Amino acid sequence: MTNSLPKISIITPSYNQGKFIEQTIQSVLTQNYPNLEYIVMDGGSTDNTVDILKKYERKLKWFSEKDKGQSDAINKGLRMATGAIVTWLNSDDYYLPGTLQKVSNYYAEHADAFWVTGDYEIVDESGKQIHSFVRIYKKFLRSLPFRNTLYIANYINQPSTFWKRSLLKKTGFVNENYHLCMDYDLWLRIYKNNPLHTIFSPLSAFRIHSDSKGKSQYVKQFNEEKEVAEKNGGSKVDLTLHAIHSYLVTKVYNAIK
Q: Hey, which bits of the chain come out as E strands?
């Protein structure tokens, strides 16, 4: 049975996330997926992260050394990965029960799928669900049939997205020049030649807390998003709509802070 299931490789980049990383690790290991490769790339944390990693070292591979940031850590892990399907899961996010089996089943039933994304929950520091309207809005955007929508707004949730490792030979790895929108850049590169498949159920919990990039650096993130969209072939109309969309979303974020 194990050999019939595709190997899934999950990379967790980490730095001083001892507060959350154990929940992240447990959410992966308790999937009980029998063909799993789990790699944690820690950037030399000075908190209790390494102690936590040691607790689970028989069930995962981990490395703790200085790196050049999140994108560098992700790439290091992806280069080590041997699974047919790969992804990364940040050290403050976590999977919901049954996620890896759902992903595996989807690939088994859709031989033409090179990448797939799913729905998600947004949670706060304590794991309480928040901002449900954002999730609903992005779900609506994913349902639109217009191909250029992804140039206008990044509606793909990173921890709920998985792709075939073979795509990396065609699209390349994560661009290490980006520190906020490295996922968006990768999505656009993949999207040019590979239709996005969707699982219509929540696969992960995306956490927003005081130290998360999505909470503290969203203005910089939107500026980087526009640069990414332009670099990857967004038209003038797309970029104008992207700027308008970012402006409106910023107004909403400021209103709910």
A: 8-14, 36-42, 61-64, 85-88, 94-95, 115-123, 161-164, 197-207
